[in-house]
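FW: tagging you since you asked about this chain on Friday. Here's the raw sequence from the shared folder, copied in full. Didn't touch anything.
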Amino acid sequence: MPKDISFNGFYNSHNPLAKSLEWGRFKKILKMADLKGNETILDFGCGAQSLKKSLPEGCKYIGFDVVSEYSDIKDYKKLKDVDVVFSLSVFEHLSPKDLESNLRTFKKMGVKKLVVELPREDSFLNRFGSWLFGLEFDHAVNHRLGWREAIKIIDKHFSCSDFKNRAYISWISVWEAKK
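HL: got it, structure written out here
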């Protein structure tokens, strides 16, 4: 199994600053997502399903990850009537071809909204934060797409309705399905 490059440890960190930053990140992402509480949510690349704890009551949560013990389902492509897909720090690990394929699948599933976070590996603050929290920044070598390239691909399938450049560490965006 590859080295764990996830940030799941931040949510339960003994470092109060790290823990506060990550839960604050979820609050910002959920505010931007503007969930009503009755949506079906696919957490694409869910990791340890930390997002699930922050969703409004009434949302139906489905987690999918390539690490099978994290996933609620084996094949997300069979889902229908998914309202919102969250993909937080995932798309950069896909090839351009795989990202295109996944976006087409999301549209077939009826996805109305896509909430994406892409790390800004080019950011000084990202590198400094990794050093500060004792993380190796070599996880960026596992990235197959830069954030700018991923945005161009997403834009072919969805329309951006909101975005934030979160402290130059990550690019958070909300996308609506194109007709």
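FW: Residues 7 and 165 are 19 Å apart (CA to CA).
HL: agreed, and The first helix runs from residue 8 to 11.
FW: great, closing this out.
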